[in-house]
Amino acid sequence: MSGAQQYEVIVSDKFAEDLRRLAADARADPSRVFLRQQVIAQMKQLAEGATDGRHALGYESGKGDLRDCVTAYLQSDPQAKADYRLVFREMPAVAPGELPRRELLAVKPRRGAGNIYEHTCARLNRNLHDRQPGLNAFGDRMPSLKQNQAQRQAELDANRAIAHAFPGQVPLATSRPLAASQFGNRRANSPPPQGQGLDR
């Protein structure tokens, strides 16, 4: 996509663990290679601005408050519906003139015990039943909201603008930028800025 906004992709230690687990699964079972390839392709598209994810997330008791997060859909089987999700957050640039950031939080199955939403809330230190007052800037999205592509994109654009201007939107302490040329390897010499998290 020419002219698309580029992003710096940052990942937490837990997301890096997800990637290592996917790689191990792919080595042990060739049928798992497709999922790993999809994750790597999605990461590149997020960095290149070729995708903004599928849709913004909201708050739902039992699934947590993820109003500052976006989900992307992934298939473990090319012949089946998307059964995995990759969740990320938009972040402002570290300094003027630098790229805005996308923090990858988790890649897990959509449903079942230990699903993507449980993992994401745990990684963000959020209770599954509580609202996060600091996320009120993102409004209240109904999780069951049905939207067409244009409506989803408009919501993603609005939430990204909020996230890029929101002083509480800072990465996890364990998040690090990926090396520009190789997804899966973190740049060791570039720690994220330290700051206060969202009001809880």
Describe this entry's structure for a reader.
This protein is α+β, with helices and mostly antiparallel strands. The chain has 4 helices and 9 strands. The protein has helices spanning 13-28, 33-48, 116-123, 149-165, and strands at residues 8-11, 55-56, 59-60, 64-65, 69-74, 84-91, 101-109, 176-179, 182-186. The strands form 2 sheets. It has a 7-stranded mixed beta sheet with strand order 2-5-6-7-1-8-9. Mean pLDDT is 84; it is low at 180-200.
Defining traits:
single chain, 200 residues, alpha+beta, seven-stranded mixed sheet, disordered C terminus
Radius of gyration: 16 Å
Strand composition percent: 15-25%
By secondary-structure content and strand pairing, the structural class works out as alpha+beta
Question: What coarse outline follows from CA principal-axis ratios?
Answer: globular
The run of helices and strands is: EHHEEEEEEHHEE
Major pleated sheet: 7 strands, mixed
Share of helical residues: 25-40%
Distance between the termini: 38 Å
Look at the structure and give the mean pLDDT.
Answer: 84
Number of helices: 4
Strand order of the largest sheet: 2-5-6-7-1-8-9
Write the layout of secondary structure elements.
Elements: E1 8-11, H1 13-28, H2 33-48, E2 55-56, E3 59-60, E4 64-65, E5 69-74, E6 84-91, E7 101-109, H3 116-123, H4 149-165, E8 176-179, E9 182-186
Helix pairs in contact: 1-2
